[in-house]
Amino acid sequence: MESFTEVVRRKQNRPPPEVWTRKDKLVVCGAFAAALLAFLGWPILNSVITHRKIVNRRLATWETRFELSAAEISRLREIESRFHGSGLQFTAQTKSHQQIDDHKQELSRAMNPQAGLEFINYYQNKHSCGR
């Protein structure tokens, strides 16, 4: 077994630990920050992209079903964005039946009269909000 003095001498003979430079510290901190940002940012980015795809698919369906022009689609996109948001949501949206009906009416007014009437009839039969 080694004596206490031998252990102390061996420790004294060791070279001093390597000192981290500012660059090393920044690289390590940057790697941790990037990992944290990716961990938190990916679900948020994915939510926004998924929401945008859903809105685009819905508008494409309306465009073919109700024969809408590009200007009408642009206006409908604005209305949908204002009502549903950008997809960056941390809580579920709760809209009243009246708010949903008002939204449908606003959408129908943004369409040409014939398409607006078809839109209202279609969605009253499909989603009546329990009425």
Please give a structural write-up.
- The chain has helices at residues 4-13, 22-66, 70-84, 97-110, 113-126.
- The chain is mainly alpha-helical and 131 residues long.
- The mean pLDDT is 86.
- Helix 3 (70-84) runs antiparallel to helix 4 (97-110) and helix 4 packs antiparallel against helix 5.
- The N and C termini lie far apart (89 Å).
Provide a compact summary of the structure.
The chain has about 130 residues and is mainly α. It has helices spanning about 5-15, 20-65, 70-85, 95-110, 115-125. The N and C termini lie far apart (about 90 Å).
Question: How would you summarize the topology of this molecule?
Answer:
Layout: H1 4-13, H2 22-66, H3 70-84, H4 97-110, H5 113-126
Helix pairs in contact: 2-3, 3-4, 4-5
How much helix is in the residues? over 70%
Q: What structural class do helix, strand and pairing data support?
A: mainly alpha
Mean pLDDT: 86
Q: How many beta-strand elements? A: 0
**Count of helical stretches:** 5
Order of helices and strands: HHHHH
The portion of residues forming beta strands comes to under 5%
Q: CA-to-CA gap between the ends? A: 89 Å
Whole-number count of domains: 1
Key phrases:
131 residues, single chain, rod-shaped
